[in-house]
Amino acid sequence: MSPHAIQAEGLEKRFGETRALSGVSLTAEAGTVLGVLGPNGAGKTTTTRILATLIEPTAGHATVGGYDVVKQAHQVRQLVGLTGQYAGVDEMLTGTENLLMIGRLLGQSRRAARARAAELLDRFGLVDAAGRPAKTYSGGMRRRLDLAASLVGRPQILFLDEPTTGLDPRSRNGLWDMVRGLTADGVTVLLTTQYLEEADQLADDIVVIDRGQVIAHGTSDALKEQVGGQVLEVRPVDASDASTVQAIVADLAGATPETVDGLVSVPITDPALMPAVVRRLDDAGVPIGELSLRKSSLDEVFFALTGHHTDDVDAEADQLVRAEKEGARA
Amino acid sequence: MTTAALAPEPQLTRRVSPAAALRHTATLAWRNLVQIKHNPMELVDLSIQPIMFVLLFAYVFGPSMTGSVSSYLPVVIPGIIAQNALFAGMSTGFGLNTDLTKGVFDRFRSLPIARSAPLAGRILADTVKQAWSMAILLAVGFLIGFRIHTGPVAVVGAFLLLLAFAVLFSWTSVYIAMKVNEPEKVQLFGFVAIFPLSFLSTAFIKSTRGIPDWLAWVIRNNPVTQLVEAMRGLLIGGPVLHHAVAALAWGLAITLIFAPLSLRAFKRRA
Question: Which of A95, A111, B47, B155 has the most CB within a 10 Å radius?
Answer without folding.
Answer: A95
